[in-house]
Specification:
This protein is an alpha+beta fold and 73 residues long. It contains 4 helices and 3 strands. It has a 3-stranded antiparallel β-sheet. The radius of gyration is 11 Å and the shape is globular.
Length: 73
């Protein structure tokens, strides 16, 4: 898993939240505009891999598999 994908997963634990919206997940990209734009692709990839699930209105939640990789059991 690449570093940006891991940072996206780690945000759930840092924010102590079961769900996060896409705008919050953009923070995984830091101040780098290019990295922030890549977050959308990474989130889509994590959904395809079964690590995140869409909750509607741009909200995402960790799946059980995602919690394990993020260390949030």
């Amino acid at each position: 898993m690449d570093e940006l994908a891991q940072r996206v997963l780690d945000l759930f634990g840092q924010m102590n939240s079961e769900t996060l919206d896409l705008h919050t997940l953009f923070e995984a990209g830091g101040n780098d505009r290019g990295a922030r734009e890549k977050v959308f692709d990474v989130v889509s990839q994590l959904v395809r891999e079964g690590l995140l699930e869409e909750r509607g209105s741009d909200f995402y939640a960790l799946t059980t598999k995602g919690r394990v990789l993020a260390g949030n059991r």
